[in-house]
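Researcher: Structure for this, please.
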Amino acid sequence: MLDLKVLGSSSTGNCYLINTSKEVLILECGVHYKRIFEALNYNLINVVGCLVTHEHADHSKSVNDLAKSGIEIYSSAGTLKALGVEGHRIHKVQSEKQFRAGNFIILPFEIQHDAAEPLGYLIYHPEFGKLLFATDTYYIKYKFNSLNYIMVECNYSKKLLDKNIHSGNLIPALRKRLLSSHFSLENVIKFLEANDLSALKGIMLMHLSNSNSNANEFKEEIETVTGVPVTIC
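Model: Predicted structure, C-alpha cell format:
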C-alpha cells in the first residue's frame, strides 16, 4: 500500500513524501525546506532522493537547501540548467532512461509544460508496486501497463474555466496558458481511459486550481469513469 504524505499541492507549493518501511522518496520540493525537514522529523538518513519535475519555484524552491543537507536531487539537464544548480548531489536524468534511488526504480518520461525540460516519473518499489507521477502537463503521450497508483494533476475543467471567463473573473490570456500547460479534467479522463487500469488501487488528483476546479465533482466523475477510489491531494 502506498504511504503518501502531502506537504503542498497547489501553485503556492508542491511536495510529497513517499514512505516505505526503510526509505523515503521526496517528490518535488516547492515548499520551504524547514517544512520538509519537520515532516521528516529531522531524520534525513532514510531519504534516498528528491525528484523534481521542472524549474518553476512551486516545484523546486528548496533544491539548493536539500542538496546542501545531503539529499540527492534528480531532474533533467534542462531543469537543472534553468535552476542554475550543480554539485555532487545533483544528478541529471533522461527521459526513458531508468535509474535507481535506494530500492526505488524510476523511469523518467517527457511531459508537456511551459518549462525547459519537464519530466514525469514512473516509480516502482517492491512495497507498493508501480506509481505514475505526472504534474503540470497538458498531455501525456505514453501509455502504461499494470499501474497500481496514479498521482496526476487535474488542474481545471474547461466548463468552469469558460464560466469564469464569461463572468469576468478570469482574463482570456490565462485560459490560453492553462490550455497549453496544465491538465484539464477532460484530458485526465482521456488519459486514464487510454491506460491499463486493471491493477489500479488508487488515484490521487493533484494541483487543483482554486477557482477553476471542483474537488467533489472531479472525485465523483473520475471514480465513476474508472471504478477506482480517488483522493484529492
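Researcher: Any notable elements?
Model: The longest helix spans residues 215-226. The mean pLDDT is 92.
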